[in-house]
Amino acid sequence: MTPLRPVRGLLSGCALALAGVAAGQPPQPGAGVNPFAPLSWQSAAAPAAAPAAPALPPQVQDTASAPPAPPPLPFRYLGRYAAGVKLVFLMKGEHVLLAKAGDTLDGGWRVDRVDGPAIQFTYLPLQMKQSLATGDVP
């Protein structure tokens, strides 16, 4: 029985041939190259990277110059009922609320108008108006 030839010599020759061809050099048979050696895409003569610039502190925004804004409306429109007084069904979280024009709801919201394609609210702490679209036809 013939002893097995080590595969290492065969692999190193293939790796060397491929490395030489990739570099534009003719293949050199017999030279040993480790095919499992770590490789890098950077050339060995690549200059060292410049040191990173020091991190700048985050910019602090001047909140005094920005006008205050009301929070987003916490209500969702469920429907309306119009038998004499126009009422709307609103949902806040898991709670269903029944409201009409002039009602003040928890959280500082006043219902100003319930007719038309939107419900008009006023956020009382800032006296700012917002509307909630109902999708209804006016």
Main beta sheet: 4 strands, antiparallel
Mean pLDDT across every amino acid position: 77
**CATH class term of the domain at 76-133:** Mainly Beta
Which structural class fits the helix and strand makeup?
Answer: alpha+beta
Biggest sheet, spatial arrangement of strands: 4-5-6-7
What CATH architecture of the domain at 76-133 do you see? Answer: Roll
> Treating each run of at least 4 consecutive H or I residues as one helix, how many helices?
1
Please summarize what this structure is.
By secondary structure, the chain is α+β, with helices and mostly antiparallel strands. The chain is 12% helix and 29% strand.
Can you offer a commentary on this structure?
- Among the domains are: 7-36, no CATH class; 76-133, SH3 type barrels (Roll), CATH 2.30.30.
- The chain is built from one helix and seven strands.
- The protein has one helix at residues 7-22, and strands at residues 76-83, 85-92, 95-99, 104-105, 109-113, 118-123, 128-133.
- It has a four-stranded antiparallel beta sheet, with no helix packed on it. It has a three-stranded antiparallel beta sheet with strand order 1-2-3, with no helix packed on it.
- The chain starts with 6 loop residues before the first helix and ends in a 5-residue tail after the last strand.
